[in-house]
Design a protein that fits this description.
The chain is 43% helix and 18% strand. The chain is of the alpha/beta class.
């Protein structure tokens, strides 16, 4: 709990360190869907416009976009926010649309780490700075980024399950969409831990695409295919972990199989408090969103961050410290 309180205090310090990029607190004009960028604010003065496309509106991304909206409003920027609905080609089209609208800066949570690469060159050719958020882009070109340390997240969630099953047994892994940086790096973290435990076997790993419903169905299939063999479940986000828990509860075997996840969304934290879910890894969605906007504004102000990669520390959440989140961030 002391570590988590320290993390929350650190978060406040990080946010304060970006305060110098504020351009005022004028009321923000926000657009969503396929809306157009705003060219002016009250009094006729031009306002910076942030074009943003995110991969999919999970509970976590919804929290992140709330941070994006709030920070844009506080810093006096207009926002055009689009949802790619997990469609990589649609996201590229959205980037093209935002460039055509002449936004001042691009903020992208990528559907796919590789498929989004052309957007880097497109933005560069258009003279529009690009900032990545939550999902890394697989490019050698320098760009600014705000997001989680996903390798660390994968290590924390897998280590918890390995410890819970006594360092031996069988696990299954619910992955994010193949090709996303979160899927790649969380799996890397999972494998880093598994390499130390030769007596832990992965029976199956498959994407459930951040979806509670897909994870429910996939876990049901696994419980049938590997009846009596699964000792632990590792999910790359809480939505999928909660889907797995539904499947286990329906079979009446939840108490026999621990589950871990990532994100520490409110539903996940409540499930941990209620004893239905063992562990998750906290990444501050609102902070990521706010930092992404702050980086955008710093670039536009001619004062970009000292580092291109701005990672957020991850923290394991269990029954021992979950109340700290429920009583603060989710109060």
């Amino acid at each position: 709990m002391k570590k988590l309180l320290t993390l929350l205090l650190t978060t406040i310090v990080i946010c304060a360190s970006f305060a110098g990029c504020s351009t005022g607190t004028a009321t923000q004009t926000q657009s969503s869907g396929s809306g157009s960028a705003s060219d002016s604010a009250a009094g006729g003065e031009a306002r910076p416009v942030i074009g943003c496309t995110v991969y999919y509106m999970t509970e976590f991304v919804t929290l992140m976009t709330e941070g994006i909206k709030s920070e844009a409003e506080e810093l006096g920027a207009d926002l055009v926010l689009l949802d790619a609905n997990n469609d990589a080609q649609k996201q590229i089209s959205q980037v093209e649309n935002l460039i055509a609208q002449k936004v001042d800066v691009m903020l992208i949570a990528a559907v796919d780490a590789d498929a989004i690469v052309p957007a880097v060159e497109m933005c560069e050719n258009a003279g529009i700075p690009l900032v990545g958020i939550n999902m890394l882009i697989n490019t050698d070109t320098d760009y600014y980024y705000s997001g989680p340390n996903d390798v660390q997240a994968g290590e924390l969630e897998m280590q918890y399950i390995v410890d819970a099953i006594g360092g031996k047994g069988n696990v299954v892994i619910l992955e994010g969409p193949i090709g996303t940086s979160a899927q790649l790096q969380r799996m890397e973290g999972n494998q880093n831990v598994l390499a130390k435990y030769p007596d832990v076997k992965v029976l199956a790993n498959q994407p459930a695409n951040w979806s509670r419903e897909e994870a429910l169905s996939l876990t049901e299939n696994w419980l049938q295919a590997f009846e009596g063999q699964i000792d632990g479940i590792v999910a790359h986000n809480d939505e999928m972990a909660l889907g797995a828990i539904q499947a286990l509860e329906a079979k009446g075997i939840k108490n026999d199989i621990p589950v871990s996840g990532v994100d520490a969304i409110k539903d996940g934290c409540q499930a941990i408090k209620d004893g239905r879910f063992e562990a998750t890894v906290f990444q501050d969605a609102e902070l990521e969103g706010r930092l992404g906007v702050q980086i955008c504004m710093q670039i536009l102000d001619g004062n970009p961050p000292a580092h291109h990669m701005n990672y957020i520390e991850m923290t394991l959440i269990t029954q021992e410290n979950v109340s700290e989140l429920l009583d603060t961030i989710y109060a």
